Amino acid sequence: MLINANSLLNFDRAEEVATVTTGLNNVYAESFWSHPKSTRQSILLLNSASSVSVTSGVVSGAGFSSPTIYVNGNLNGTVTVNTWNDIVVTTVI
Length: 93
Description:
The protein is mostly beta strands and 93 residues long. It has strands spanning 2-3, 19-20, 27-34, 41-45, 51-55, 58-62, 68-71, 74-75, 85-92. It has no helices and 9 strands. A 4-stranded antiparallel β-sheet has the order 3-9-7-8, with no helix packed on it. β4 (41-45) and β5 form a beta hairpin.
């Protein structure tokens, strides 16, 4: 499957692979699951300058250039304590 940067993906077989041809230069993303025990804690340390944390349930990324953050599929969503949350942080470098 060959796609461009503005396409929607629909996978219906296990062997399908998406190849992006243009438009995603210098885009980085961190995607992970977190099960926070409180609404304030550090949840991912990438290196000495980059990390992801939660304050008052809001996820933020330090060391990212203009991060876009999704929590459970919601842009700028908040985490739910004591449950699994899907967190995605994207940035352009």
